[in-house]
# Entry
Amino acid sequence: MTSVKEIYNYYKRFGFPTEVMGASFRSKAEVLELAGCDALTISPHLLGELKASTDVVERKLKPEAATETKIERLQLDEAKFRWLLNENAMATEKLAEGIRLFNADAVKLKQYLSQVR
# Structure
């Protein structure tokens, strides 16, 4: 959640025209912590919990608030980007995991489609 908040605030603060999407939630509380994010991928189980809940949902991420953060704009070239990515263990591990899982799903889809035809 911390990295999604940081990414959201950075992109909104500097006006990058992109949507930030949070994913891989383990609990309803994690989903609520990112209320206001541009997009969220939420499992059916957690959607059910949210639907059944009577908790008040407070918007946590707001573009207006992001513009007031004290984040400095990064001056990046490829080498600097790669270094910063390498220094962030969570980003490096999650990126690698995401690529592996995406590839595994692509292989499963390809196999399924070859059986359906």
